[in-house]
From TrEMBL:
<protein>
    <submittedName>
        <fullName>Chorismate mutase</fullName>
        <ecNumber>5.4.99.5</ecNumber>
    </submittedName>
</protein>
<feature type="domain" description="Chorismate mutase">
    <location>
        <begin position="15"/>
        <end position="96"/>
    </location>
</feature>
<keyword id="KW-0413">Isomerase</keyword>
<dbReference type="Pfam" id="PF01817">
    <property type="entry name" value="CM_2"/>
</dbReference>
<dbReference type="InterPro" id="IPR036979">
    <property type="entry name" value="CM_dom_sf"/>
</dbReference>
<dbReference type="InterPro" id="IPR002701">
    <property type="entry name" value="CM_II_prokaryot"/>
</dbReference>
<dbReference type="InterPro" id="IPR010958">
    <property type="entry name" value="Chorismate_mutase_highGC-bac"/>
</dbReference>
<dbReference type="InterPro" id="IPR036263">
    <property type="entry name" value="Chorismate_II_sf"/>
</dbReference>
<dbReference type="GO" id="GO:0004106">
    <property type="term" value="F:chorismate mutase activity"/>
</dbReference>
Length: 96
């Protein structure tokens, strides 16, 4: 089996476009690594808050705060921002 060419990998029809796409995909992979790191950092900070609240006798989940987080993402990113925030909340406090 022969290796795939850059053009085949990217779906581009010219070498120029294939190079541009290959370079931009490297930037996307680097951005995704940073985003994943930030999500992991968010999960750790969220866990600190949840543990403090539970230790004090409170509940893990605070719906009023979650509404603020959802609105923040919706205002910045539109409707898909709400879905993204819901996924982030699930990563941070589990399923409710
Ligand atoms: C982190 C908190 O606890 C929970 C997790 C949240 C989050 O990850 O943003 C938001 C509300 C709570 O359900 C908080 O109350 O701020």
């Amino acid at each position: 089996m022969t290796a795939m060419t850059q053009t085949e990998k990217t779906g581009a029809r010219t070498d120029e476009a294939a190079t541009l796409i290959g370079d931009a995909r490297e930037r996307i992979d680097a951005l995704d690594d940073r985003i994943i790191g930030l999500i992991q950092e968010r999960m750790a900070v969220s866990a600190v808050i949840q543990e403090a609240r539970i230790s004090s006798g409170g509940r893990r989940v605070n719906l009023a705060r979650e509404m603020e987080v959802l609105a923040h993402y919706r205002d910045a990113l539109g409707k898909p921002g709400t879905s993204l925030a819901m996924t982030l909340l699930e990563l941070c406090r589990g399923r409710v």
